[in-house]
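can u do me a favor
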């Protein structure tokens, strides 16, 4: 085993020492900083092993450089080209919601998208998860709409007793609130009256 000099203990000192060794392998300063950062993520114990073994250092630096190159090559893709590639792959499996699913997947990190494009299995899983999420959101939206329709009818019946001429407009204003708040109004006559009066005054100010 080839020693690389005295081994420091603190992580910041480890980083400085590791950086100097990486630079000594004819790596540019900018790339050396990136490589050092990647190697430091491996943990202090592994970094200490690297610092003590020049061959291991060379292997790990080469691997990090390869990862940086792949990332650089991938990021050089134009966004439109990347989206088009992903869209085509998604469309092959899910034509109905391919645009929405592609949009959801494009929010992932570049490294993750790269893996998806290279693995049919991973892409299948990602598409299935996105589709399930879309279905859940759609079902939740339908439930919410049904809930508001029913609440709207009950709310209108109560408002019409207070301001019959403006009941439709006031009910429409109140329905801008979320479902949970509307349910509270229906169970609390005093609070409902306050909100209805506020809506009524707002309508009067608008018309005056």
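np, heres the sequence
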């Amino acid at each position: 085993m080839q020693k690389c000099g005295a081994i420091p203990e603190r992580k910041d000192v480890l980083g400085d020492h590791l950086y100097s060794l990486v630079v000594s392998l004819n790596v540019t300063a900018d790339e050396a900083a990136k490589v050092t950062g990647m190697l430091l993520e491996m943990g202090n114990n592994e970094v200490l092993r690297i610092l003590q073994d020049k061959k291991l250092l060379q292997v790990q630096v080469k691997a990090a450089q390869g990862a940086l190159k792949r990332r650089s090559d991938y990021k050089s893709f134009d966004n439109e080209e990347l989206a088009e590639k992903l869209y085509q792959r998604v469309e092959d499996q899910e034509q109905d919601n391919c645009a929405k699913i592609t949009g959801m997947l494009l929010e992932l990190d570049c490294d993750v998208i790269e893996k998806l494009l290279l693995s049919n299995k991973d892409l299948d899983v990602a598409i299935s998860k996105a589709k399930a999420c879309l279905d859940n959101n759609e079902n939740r939206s339908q439930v919410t709409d049904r809930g508001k329709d029913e609440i709207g009818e009950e709310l209108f019946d109560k408002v019409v007793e207070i301001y019959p001429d403006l009941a439709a407009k006031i009910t429409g204003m109140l329905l801008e609130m979320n479902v949970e708040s509307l349910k509270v109004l229906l169970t609390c006559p005093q609070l409902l009256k306050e909100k209805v009066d506020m809506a009524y005054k707002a309508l009067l100010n608008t018309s005056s």
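The CA atoms of residues 23 and 29 lie 7 Å apart. hope that helps!!
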